[in-house]
Amino acid sequence: MADKIIYAKGERISLRPLESSDLDGDYLAWINDPEVTRYTEVGIFPTTKQDLDDFYQATKSSRNQLILAIIESKTDRHIGNLKLGPIHWVHRRATFGILIGDKSMWGKGIGEEATRLAVEYAFNRLNLNRVDLGVIADHEAAVRCYERVGFKVEGRFRQDLFAEGEFKDRLWMGLLRSEYRAVGA
Question: What is the pTM of this model?
C-alpha cells in the first residue's frame, strides 16, 4: 500500500480514499446482499455496476462527501466503506455512515475501530466540531459500538425507517469534539 494515500491507520485497518478499482471487487455484491444492507438505507433497489460508477463519480469530486475504503492491514483487502457527509463546513459538522461488507470481518471490532478513526479524522484533520449519525434503534450491536466511541443518543424518530417488513425507530446520535477528547479514546 506504499503508493496509496492513507487517511488514517489503526491496529488492524486503515482508511484510504475509495478508488475506481474498488468498484471491481466485492463492493457491488455487498450493496446487493440483503444481509449486508439489512440496517442501511441502500440495497432497497438492485444496484448495477453503472449505478456504482455513477455514485463514485459524483462523490469523488465532492467537497461535501468523503467516502473512504476500509482496508484490512494484514491482507490489504477492501472490507467496507465509510462516509462523512454531507459535511457542512460553516457549521463544522458531518453525518457518519459505515458498511462492513465482508461478513468474515463482522463481530471483530472492525466497525468500532473504523468509527474511531473516522471521528479522529473528522475532528483533527477536517476541524469539524460535531459528527452525528442515524441508526435503527434495534440494531443493538451498532448502538453499543457508537456509545463506546462516545456518541450519545440525542433523539428517537418513531417508525422512521422501513426495514424487514416493518417500520422501525431510528436513533439519532451525536458526538462533539469536546466530548471525544474528554473520553480520551
Answer: 0.92
